[in-house]
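Whiteboard transcription, Tuesday session. T.W. wrote the C-alpha cells on the left side:
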C-alpha cells in the first residue's frame, strides 16, 4: 500500500510492514527498456472518521480542519515525494495513485496543486468513467450503472499549465480500466497517451478480454468459498414481507428535490431493522447504527438467510454498550443518527442546532425546541465499536460517554441474525408458525419515507417538499385520512376525526366548532394547525398571537 501522508511508524505492525516494503510512500517500477516509473500514493484525510487507524497516523492533518483544508495540507507531502523520485532516483514518469473518496478531489484539488506528474489514478468515489464507445454491463438494453464521467480519462491542469489525465474505475469487480503510454526511448518521458478504455467484467463469451479460469486455482480457492457461502445462503432464519432498502448512494437538497431514500441519507426500514438489532443485542433503551456499516439491501420479499445477514453487515464490527447516558449527551450524538426514538431536525443546519425534538418510545420527551428538557432520565445505549471509538466522527469521547469493556461482545451481523431468529416471546422477531406471518413485516419496516416513517425521524427541510392532497369535509362528522405527502385537512363544522399520515400536514381551523375535532396523529415541528381562517372569522385584527397563523 502506497501513501505519502501516512506515518507508518505509529504502530509496530505498520512499522514492520514498512520495513519489509509492504507499505511505503512510493514505488519505482523499471521498464524493460530501463526507464523508471514512479508510483506515488495518497490517502484521504477522512481516514480517521471513516476507518479505525492508529492514532497519529495522518501527516499534516488536524481534526479541527475541514476536509478541504486537510487536502490542501496533504499536497506538500505528495509534492516532496514526487520531487525526490525525479531528482534523487532518476524517475522520468510519475503516476499518482490516490484514494480521496471522489475523483472530483483529484480533478479540482490534487492535480491543480502539484507539478511533475504524468497521470492520476483516483479511487474511493465508485464513479464509472468511460467513453461513449466503451461496452457497458447492460440490463434490458441500458447500462446497469450510468457513467459519472462520459470521457476516459478526464483532464485537469497542473501548476505548470500541463494537461494531466485522471482515470478511475468502478467498484465490485465490474470494470477494469486500461491506459497505454508511449515513452521516449532516450528521455523516458511520456510521448503520448495512445489508448484508454473501460473494460467490462461480465464473463460474457462475446467479450474480447474474457479468459478461461484456471482450473487448479478455481478448485483450491473459488470452489471452497462458494461452497461455504452456499451453506450460509441455504440457512433460512426468517422471512420478509417487503423489500428493505440498503445503501442507496443519493442525496437531497431542499426543494425542488428528487429524493431517493437510502441508509446514508434517510431513515429506512433496513436502517431501523439493524438499529433494532443493536438494541436487542445490548438490551438497551437507544441504539445507533451508522449508514456506512450497512452494505446491501434485501431486494425482494421472501426468505431471509444467514448469508443475507453477512451481505448486509459485512464488517467485523462489535456491539458496544454504554450503561448510562443523559439527554445532553444524546443530543450531540443525535446530530448523526437515531434508533428507538423520535427525532425532529433540519439536515442543513449547523451541527449543534439540528435536533429540535427527541422522544423515546415510552413517550419521554428529552429535547423540545432544541433544548434539553429532561435532565433526570438516564438510559442505556448501544452502537458498534467503530462508532464508539469515534468512527464517522461520532463525538462519544468528547461527550464523556463511557462504554463497557466487554471482550465477549458479538458482531453486529450476529446481532441481526439473533433478532430475526429469536422468538417474539423473548423480544425477537421469530414467528412460532406460518399463521404468525413474516418476521420482517410491513407494519414494522415496510414504509420507505424520507422524512417521517413511524413518526421516528423527521427532516424539516425534506418534509416540506413532498406534495400531498387537500381534503375538505362537510357539516357531518367526517373521518379524513391523509396521504404520505404534505396534506391540507379541513374537517368542516362537525366533530371530525383527522389523520394526517406521514408528511408535514396542515390541519385547518376556521370555526370554534373545530375544537371538537380529534387529531389522531400530530407531530410537533412537522405538522401544523392553521388558525388563519379562525382568527379572520373571529374578527381578530391585532398582532398575530402565533407566527403566520400557525401553531
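and on the right, the sequence the group agreed on:
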Amino acid at each position: 500500500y502506497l501513501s505519502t501522508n501516512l506515518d507508518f511508524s505509529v504502530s509496530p505492525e505498520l512499522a514492520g510492514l514498512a520495513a519489509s516494503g509492504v507499505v511505503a510512500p512510493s514505488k519505482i517500477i523499471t521498464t524493460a527498456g530501463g526507464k523508471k516509473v514512479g508510483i506515488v500514493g495518497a490517502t484521504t484525510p477522512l481516514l480517521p472518521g471513516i476507518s479505525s487507524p492508529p492514532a497519529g497516523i495522518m501527516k499534516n492533518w488536524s481534526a479541527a480542519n475541514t476536509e478541504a483544508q486537510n487536502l490542501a495540507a496533504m499536497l506538500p507531502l505528495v509534492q516532496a515525494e514526487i520531487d525526490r523520485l525525479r531528482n534523487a532516483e532518476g524517475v522520468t514518469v510519475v503516476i499518482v495513485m490516490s484514494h480521496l473518496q471522489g475523483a472530483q478531489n483529484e480533478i479540482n484539488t490534487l492535480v491543480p496543486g502539484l507539478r511533475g506528474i504524468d497521470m492520476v489514478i483516483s479511487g474511493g468515489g465508485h464513479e464509472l468513467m468511460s467513453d461513449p464507445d466503451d461496452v457497458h454491463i447492460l440490463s434490458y438494453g441500458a447500462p446497469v450503472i450510468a457513467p459519472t464521467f462520459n470521457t476516459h480519462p478526464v483532464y485537469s491542469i497542473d501548476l505548470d499549465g500541463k494537461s494531466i489525465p485522471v482515470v478511475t474505475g468502478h467498484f465490485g469487480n465490474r470494470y477494469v480500466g486500461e491506459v497505454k503510454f508511449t515513452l521516449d526511448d532516450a528521455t523516458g518521458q511520456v510521448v503520448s497517451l495512445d489508448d484508454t478504455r473501460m473494460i467490462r467484467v461480465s464473463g460474457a463469451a462475446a467479450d474480447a478480454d474474457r479468459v478461461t479460469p484456471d482450473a487448479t486455482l478455481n478448485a483450491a480457492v473459488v470452489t471452497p468459498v462458494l461452497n461455504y457461502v452456499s451453506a450460509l445462503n441455504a440457512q433460512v432464519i426468517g422471512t420478509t414481507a417487503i423489500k428493505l432498502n440498503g445503501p442507496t448512494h443519493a442525496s437531497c437538497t431542499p426543494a425542488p428535490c428528487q429524493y431517493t431514500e437510502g441508509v446514508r441519507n434517510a431513515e429506512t426500514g433496513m436502517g431501523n431493522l439493524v438499529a433494532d438489532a443493536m438494541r436487542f443485542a445490548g438490551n438497551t433503551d437507544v441504539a445507533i447504527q451508522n449508514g456506512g456499516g450497512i452494505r446491501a439491501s434485501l431486494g425482494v420479499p421472501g426468505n431471509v438467510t444467514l448469508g443475507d445477514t453477512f451481505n448486509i453487515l459485512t464488517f467485523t464490527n462489535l456491539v458496544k454498550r454504554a450503561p448510562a447516558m443523559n439527554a445532553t449527551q444524546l443530543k450531540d450524538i443525535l446530530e448523526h443518527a437515531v434508533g428507538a426514538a423520535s427525532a425532529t431536525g433540519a439536515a442543513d443546519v449547523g451541527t449543534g442546532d439540528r435536533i429540535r425534538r427527541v422522544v423515546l418510545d415510552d413517550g419521554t420527551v428529552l429535547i423540545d425546541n432544541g433544548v434539553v428538557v429532561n435532565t433526570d432520565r438516564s438510559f442505556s445505549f448501544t452502537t458498534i465499536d467503530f462508532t464508539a471509538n469515534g468512527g464517522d466522527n461520532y463525538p462519544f469521547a468528547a461527550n464523556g460517554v463511557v462504554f463497557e469493556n466487554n471482550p465477549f461482545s458479538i458482531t453486529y451481523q450476529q446481532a441481526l441474525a439473533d433478532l430475526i431468529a429469536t422468538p417474539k416471546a423473548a423480544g425477537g422477531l421469530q414467528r412460532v408458525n406460518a399463521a404468525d406471518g413474516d418476521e420482517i413485516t410491513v407494519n414494522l419496516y415496510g414504509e420507505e419515507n424520507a422524512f417521517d416513517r413511524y413518526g421516528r425521524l423527521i427532516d424539516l427541510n425534506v418534509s416540506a417538499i413532498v406534495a400531498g392532497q387537500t381534503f375538505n369535509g362537510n357539516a357531518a362528522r367526517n373521518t379524513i385520512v391523509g396521504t404520505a405527502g404534505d396534506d391540507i385537512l379541513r374537517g368542516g363544522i362537525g366533530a371530525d376525526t383527522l389523520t394526517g399520515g406521514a408528511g408535514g400536514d396542515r390541519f385547518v381551523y376556521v370555526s370554534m366548532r373545530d375544537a371538537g375535532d380529534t387529531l389522531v396523529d400530530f407531530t410537533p415541528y412537522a405538522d401544523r394547525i392553521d388558525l388563519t381562517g379562525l382568527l379572520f372569522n373571529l374578527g381578530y385584527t391585532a398582532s398575530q398571537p402565533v407566527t403566520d397563523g400557525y401553531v
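Someone added at the bottom: The radius of gyration is 28 Å.
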